[in-house]
Amino acid sequence: MAGNNLVTQICVVVRDVRRANAHWSRVLGVPEEKIETIFPPGVLLHYTHGAAAEYTDCQVAKYQLAGFVLELIQPGASPSPWRTFLEEHGQGVFHFCVLVDDRKAFQHTLAEIGVDLPYHVGYHPSGSYSYVDTREALGLELSVNNQADNRALFQGLMAGAVNPMDELK
Q: Which CATH class for the 6-162 domain?
């Protein structure tokens, strides 16, 4: 189990992923990474501020570095957490991703330092991720990832039998 001390990803929001990919490739001394369009429909269920959302027009390149992934993401034209960040802050570090064993216990720890529930959550059959505004408490945003058997929760969300983030309350 990972505990709460494993940073697995640093996500950088960029205006032009092709340009950023070329520059990072040169700086890191490695070949450019493949740029993919994410997220394919039906693979993830996304909720932002409690409302279901689809994000299918983001472009991403991911570099597997020593101990973590550097993710470069160019938001699509549609509203998204990444588009909002780009419009409000310009290019920059969007989040650090922390892998946790127990999302509910970790959320309790965040609440103890004054952090609210996530504003964005994504579910898939083998886990979940959420974006938590921890800028005031930690100086940046966190993505909280959990790898677990989420099949029942995923099916419950698809059927409308459960609500997003009920498992955190």
A: alpha beta
